[in-house]
């Protein structure tokens, strides 16, 4: 007989959901408010979004965020995928320590990572700017890509690869026609997660960004210190929608890849 959970657990979960999501909903609602007074609803308007698109500083921050996110995502996806593939061939006694190193950016607090990278750049006398933000984002994004691709490889097993090699396939043919198609959903999901993390990151970017490399989260932080305006609500709403869309897309791609059972005939 299936045991039912304690009713207090459901109440606790509901309260946590309210605590987390109600403020987000309020930000999104007031981004359409036809007044600058956040607590007074005066009607629906899209004026703040129009004003946002005309703001030169917002557009500069958006371009910085997009350039950094795209480049860091490409590099992090490549490095994370290579790391996951390489770990398969390591001896078991080395996998534990190496996994710990690769998981470290996921575990340690962002403030510690940001501070440590700032110290590193200072010691190496690297000027802070877009390049340092990209390096920082690659550092933590690579670990998330590694986790997703590594999980995909673990679920795939080696049976298909061994069968392809028994049929005369070379190492490259096995990778091209067997391994890569199997892990592609994981690679795409990891890339989408890396892009989302880069686009939303504030803490690490705050430490390693220079004067000309202000990203959207840093710009929002600077504006909020002067007071919350409808334009900031609109900007936060757009970031929330983009983040949710990318995360859902990553989950969809990963689940769709897991659900595919049919395999194409190997061309060798």
TrEMBL record:
GO terms for cellular component: plasma membrane. Its main location: membrane. It holds the Pfam family BPD_transp_1. Residues 62-250 form the ABC transmembrane type-1 domain. CDD domains: TM_PBP2 (cd06261). GO terms for biological process: transmembrane transport. InterPro entries: Bact_Polyamine_Transport (IPR051789), MetI-like (IPR000515), MetI-like_sf (IPR035906). PROSITE patterns: ABC_TM1 (PS50928). Keywords: Cell membrane, Membrane, Transmembrane, Transmembrane helix, Transport. It is found in: Cell membrane. Gene3D superfamilies: MetI-like. It is a multi-pass membrane protein. The chain crosses the membrane at residues 12-32, 61-82, 102-121, 133-154, 174-195, 202-220, 232-254. SUPFAM superfamilies: MetI-like. Belongs to the binding-protein-dependent transport system permease family. CysTW subfamily. This is Spermidine/putrescine ABC transporter permease.
